[in-house]
Write a structure and sequence with these properties.
mainly beta; lipopolysaccharide transport protein A fold; twelve-stranded antiparallel β-sheet; 2 helices; 12 strands; globular
Length: about 200
């Protein structure tokens, strides 16, 4: 397994801070649900300033001096990307960088996984999907296919999840049923645990 330090070798500092792209939701989606979770994914702030390390069985990295619309790098085989407390695992990751220095990444796998510590608390955010897309320019992330996001005991899942880091805003949708799978369940699901109640002593009663 080969290891790459992307901060030194490829200039991808701050690549995966859970800000992935905001594109049009597929027209085949029937239901669109907007869910607000207050501060559900406040990533560890110190992670942004740490170097990115990437391990993969194979890597193809374009010359940094290459002139073109995008510079593309491809990592395949047991890909593990880490930056501070952030860990992303996938079968394949394609990274692109535009002339302005913005980065875009797409991760593929039977199950792409993401894990990162929340800022200021001893709690982690975890997410899973079959494909994940990240947009450094818009600070957004999209999860496609059997998408699931979990924070503590709270959890949301659907066929598609989009998350805007700056506004803490989620878009979650279930896939439209086709005529051939009318009996399948593609509804959005969410589990939100009640907050622990304060005792009389804590409330001063």
């Amino acid at each position: 397994m080969r290891k790459c330090n992307l901060q030194a070798a490829h200039g991808y500092s701050g690549l995966f801070n859970m800000a992935w792209p905001n594109r049009a939701i597929f027209s085949s989606f029937l239901s669109l649900f907007l869910i607000f979770f207050s501060s559900i994914v406040l990533a560890e702030r110190a992670d942004r300033d740490k170097p990115i390390h990437l391990e993969a069985d194979h890597a193809t990295v374009e010359d940094y001096k290459r002139k073109g619309e995008f510079r593309t790098s491809i990592f395949t085989g047991n890909v593990v990307l880490t930056q501070g407390t952030l860990v992303l695992r996938a079968d394949k990751v394609i990274m692109k960088e535009d002339a302005a220095g913005y980065r875009y990444a797409t991760a593929y796998g039977d199950l792409v996984s993401y894990r990162q510590k929340r800022d200021g608390v001893n709690e982690y955010v975890e997410a899973w999907s079959k494909r994940a897309e990240y947009d450094d320019k818009t600070d957004k992330i999209e999860l496609f296919g059997s998408a699931r996001l979990k924070r503590g005991a709270d959890e949301v899942e659907g066929d598609y999840i989009s998350y805007d880091i700056a506004s803490d805003f989620f878009q979650v949708s279930g896939r439209q049923q086709s005529e051939n799978d009318k009996n399948s369940d593609h509804r959005v699901r969410a589990v939100i645990q009640p907050k622990a109640k304060q005792s009389d002593t804590e409330t001063g009663k």
